[in-house]
């Protein structure tokens, strides 16, 4: 023992046993535990995520590309795609403006009711989309609070495109704000104050300083917001009325086809939504890999 | 351009951040606002800048009332502790920002803006780095870019908020000297905030010492260091011992002192607090003039010997710092009974028992070991 300690500075120490693991021995488990856990996680992912995804595409292509193509170019399907794109094209920019404004107000100013506003922004996350849809029916439906007035002025919101847009806006409005608030809070006010002290006006400060600081976070929020806007089912289902070619979005169209036992067509349209999800996922990963430091989500999730 | 600050009041959520603060800064002066955190120094700086607005009071630049002007109309150069550089812009674009956002009528031609920015980059000794991005610069370089950016708009006053606070000690020292030279070269009226006395004393023409939203003392470095007007100033500028004493006429009596000290300042008869720095204390053989003490601790640290001693009369603890070559130092060791001599000290009305006057509440922030009170 004495010998070993005498030379401990010169020679590698002679341990009485083999080290179990070379690195991080304290926090690492036995190999078989690690294998088991990894395998369980992979099996779960495969069963619940990968298998359904593959399933969607196989079902869609079961009767060949011709049928697939026909299902997609069916006039009702095309109308559904068009409506979905239209709704997203209205809802996403609206939420972009709202999200930036809300995040700006919450992150950069102190005011009464700030906590309340922050909580309200989260409301769509906690409320069932069906309830959200019903609220709009209650407000704007024929028997609703504003119903008589709307009918008198020949305006239709429920069972029409405006209702679908409203429901979609409601359901998707937290995405951009939630992404930007922590980001802007973390960045603080110094940059904007520096810009103002140098003589910039409010718009210049926003355009040249704030916006570049949040652009990746904003893009990330838009991406998630868009995915949800195109995929939303519950709230839209309540207010849409399911009029083919008029108020049917893609998710609703999938449901109708499915209920008609038209599985090939249902899965064909569903494959478009699945494709959208994949594209979103890829873009999201690219953003996280390249600009992770400028996103708040990557630290939160 | 001179700055007049008149009777500024500012409250944050009920607590006064600034309480009737007035100050005059001369044209071309370099002024330090010095104080502990929460003293209101940063609030005052931000009010001068227009980043905050006072509840009452006035700010004048060169006689012109700025109190209600927004920050962008005041034409100030503001440097932030954490630089606040625009990280997606090159160094050149950062410096040029203030000129490029000007209204078309006032905006110089792009070539002129570029020339000005490059000239400023030379001034802050970063020539050749114009294409770098902020993340490619060291902390000291970033702060110099921030300064160049502030100077680009040819500000009426230059305001710096803890400009070296985020830098390490070595860089901080270099930058201090450099800023001093730059100030002599450019002559901008400059106000900077710091909590580091050494920084304030080394850099500033005059130091404004703040505490709890009030100005405790304004003066040159010599003024504040040699004649601290309040116990707070005395304590804030260095280590201090506080001893109980009593004034009788022009005599100052300390417990255990053989003979009275003479004070030139006039105090009403009664108890006073005597403040003395550890470095202004000397030890002498018993039998010579001074106060009876017993040495309790001796520690040699480089060129200085630090010692602690108890006053035999009342047990008060004093810290002493002696140059180790102090020629009449007796051979002192722990347990020795010696005489303590005061080379220089300040006397303030006693904090205990009395109620009036702002100067009578010494702030107790340092370790109790450095206190003279038993």
How would you explain this protein's 3D organization?
The complex is a heterodimer of chains A (301) and B (374). Chain A is mainly α. Chain A is 75% helix and 0% strand. Chain A has 15 helices and no strands. Chain A has helices spanning 2-6, 31-61, 64-73, 75-108, 114-126, 129-140, 147-152, 161-172, 174-187, 190-197, 202-231, 234-240, 250-259, 263-291, 297-300. In chain A, helix 8 crosses helix 11 and helix 8 packs antiparallel against helix 12. The longest helix of chain A has 34 residues, at 75-108. Chain A is globular, with a radius of gyration of 27 Å. The model of chain A is unreliable at 1-13 (pLDDT under 50). Chain B is α+β, with helices and mostly antiparallel strands and 374 residues long. Chain B has a six-stranded mixed sheet, with helices on both faces. In chain B, a hairpin with a 7-residue loop joins strand 12 (251-253) and strand 13 (261-262). In chain B, helix 3 packs across helix 4, helix 3 (91-100) runs parallel beside helix 5 (139-151) and helix 4 packs across helix 5. Chains A and B meet through helix 10 and helix 11 of A and strand 6 and helix 5 of B.
């Amino acid at each position: 023992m004495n010998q070993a300690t005498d030379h401990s500075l010169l020679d590698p120490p002679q341990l009485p046993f083999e080290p179990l693991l070379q690195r991080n021995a304290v926090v690492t488990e036995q190999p078989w535990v690690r294998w088991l856990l990894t395998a369980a996680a992979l099996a779960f992912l495969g069963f619940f995520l990968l298998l359904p995804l593959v399933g969607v595409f196989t079902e869609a292509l079961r009767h060949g590309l011709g049928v697939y193509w026909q299902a997609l170019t069916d006039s009702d399907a095309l109308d559904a795609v068009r409506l979905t794109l239209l709704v997203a094209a209205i809802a996403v920019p609206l939420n972009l403006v709202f999200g930036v404004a809300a995040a700006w107000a919450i992150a950069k100013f102190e005011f009464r009711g700030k906590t309340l506003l922050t909580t309200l922004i989260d409301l769509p996350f906690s409320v069932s989309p069906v309830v959200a849809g019903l609220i709009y029916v209650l407000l704007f439906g024929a028997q609703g609070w504003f119903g008589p007035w709307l009918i008198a002025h020949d305006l239709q919101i429920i069972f029409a495109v405006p209702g679908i847009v409203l429901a979609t806006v409601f359901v998707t409005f937290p995405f951009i704000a939630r992404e930007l608030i922590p980001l802007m809070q973390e960045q603080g006010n110094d940059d904007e104050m520096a810009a103002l002290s140098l003589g910039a006006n409010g718009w210049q400060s926003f355009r040249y300083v704030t916006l570049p600081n949040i652009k990746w976070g904003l893009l990330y929020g838009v991406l998630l917001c868009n995915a949800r806007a195109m995929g939303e089912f519950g709230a839209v289902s309540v207010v849409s009325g399911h009029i083919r070619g008029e108020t049917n979005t893609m998710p609703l169209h999938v449901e109708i086809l499915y209920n008609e036992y038209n599985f090939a067509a249902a899965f064909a349209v569903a494959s478009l939504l699945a494709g959208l999800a994949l594209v979103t996922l890829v873009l999201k990963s690219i953003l996280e890999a390249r600009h992770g430091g400028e996103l708040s989500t990557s630290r939160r999730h | 351009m001179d700055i007049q600050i008149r009777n500024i009041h500012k409250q944050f959520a009920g607590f006064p951040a600034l309480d009737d603060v007035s100050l005059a800064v001369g044209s071309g002066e370099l002024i330090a606002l010095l104080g502990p955190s929460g003293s209101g120094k940063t609030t005052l700086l931000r009010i001068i800048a227009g980043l905050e607005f006072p509840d009452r009071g006035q700010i004048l630049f060169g006689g012109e009332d700025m109190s209600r002007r927004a920050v962008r109309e005041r034409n100030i150069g503001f440097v932030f502790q954490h630089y606040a550089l625009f990280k997606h812009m090159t160094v050149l674009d950062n410096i040029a920002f203030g000129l490029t956002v000007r209204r078309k009528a006032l905006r110089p031609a792009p070539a002129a803006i570029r020339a000005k920015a490059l000239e400023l980059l030379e001034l802050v000794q970063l020539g050749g780095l114009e294409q770098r991005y902020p993340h490619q610069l060291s902390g000291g370089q970033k702060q110099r870019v921030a300064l160049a950016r502030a100077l680009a708009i040819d500000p009426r006053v230059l305001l710096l908020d803890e400009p070296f606070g985020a830098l390490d000690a070595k860089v901080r020292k270099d930058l201090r000297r450099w800023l001093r030279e730059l100030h002599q070269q450019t002559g901008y009226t400059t106000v900077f905030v710091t909590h580091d006395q050494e920084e304030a004393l080394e850099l500033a023409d005059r130091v404004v010492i703040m505490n709890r939203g009030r100005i405790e003392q304004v003066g040159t470095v010599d003024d504040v260091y040699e004649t601290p007007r309040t116990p707070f100033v005395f304590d804030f500028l260095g280590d201090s011992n506080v001893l109980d004493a009593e004034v009788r006429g022009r005599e100052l009596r300390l417990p255990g002192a053989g003979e009275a000290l003479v004070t030139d300042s006039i105090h009403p008869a009664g108890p006073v607090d005597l403040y003395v720095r550890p470095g202004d204390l000397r030890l002498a053989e018993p039998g010579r003039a001074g106060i009876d003490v017993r040495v309790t601790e001796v520690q040699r640290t480089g060129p200085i010997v630090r010692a602690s001693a108890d006053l035999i009369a009342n047990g008060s603890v004093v810290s002493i710092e002696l140059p180790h070559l102090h020629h009449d130092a007796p051979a002192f060791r722990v347990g020795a009974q010696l005489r303590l001599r005061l080379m220089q000290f300040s006397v303030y009305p006693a904090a205990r028992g009395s109620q009036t006057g702002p100067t009578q509440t010494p702030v107790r922030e340092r370790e109790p070991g450095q206190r003279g009170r038993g």
